Amino acid sequence: MANLFIFGLGYTASRIAGAMREHGWHVDATGSDGNIDFADATAVESALQKASHVLSSVPPDRSSGLDPVLDTYSSRIGQSWLGYLSSTGVYGDAGGAWVDESSPIGTGRRSARSEADEEWLKMGARVFRLPGIYGPGRSALDRVRDGKAHRIDMPGQVFSRIHVDDIVPGVVAAMTGDAPPGAYNLGDDLPASHNAVTEEACRLLGTAPPPLQTMDEAGLSDMARGFYAENRRVANAKAKRVLGWEPRYPTYREGLAALAAGLTVRE
């Protein structure tokens, strides 16, 4: 039986863990839903010794900028298969142009993430660069239903996104196949504006879209303002070619429709 150790069993990684268990793998993990305390070095090292594969979904610490996993356990990680869930934020602003895995990183607002990304690559990891993640309980549908949706008047601003259930098969394919180390963008096929996604969610829910506003009128946080400061389209051709991966939800329309159908069933 193959053994996977996950640092940080969160929204995405918990789904990866579930998929690997379905494949017959044993999974240990840190995190609120994991079975091992990150601070328990003895337990972590024992689990790492048994693990054939290691995946980290832990972002850099906001205060120090350090990657907690690498800062604490890098000398104990010697597995031949390493994986890291990174962010397409490492590409920074591209003025709406396409970026791929050969594009430079480290020029955007997420310098700590870029440094962690590069460190994992140096260790021989498969680094999965993820755009805006949405899925059950975390989508434009939820923001509209909670009265928290907004539309910002910024013509030409686009970004990429990925349904959480499309991340899983990409990572699983890399984990169970012979994908070489390196970076892989996992994003859908249709970069689009935040406004377009919000408008589609409103259409599905039969609700009028919120009015167009400036960022000041919307009262956006500094973090949200930083999001709007970057504009790019993320190419996914490498993941398709090397991993044999295809998104089940190639655009936000299919993804939101599936989520809306799930909401209807549950209600």
TrEMBL record:
<protein>
    <submittedName>
        <fullName>SDR family NAD(P)-dependent oxidoreductase</fullName>
    </submittedName>
</protein>
<keyword id="KW-0520">NAD</keyword>
<dbReference type="InterPro" id="IPR036291">
    <property type="entry name" value="NAD(P)-bd_dom_sf"/>
</dbReference>
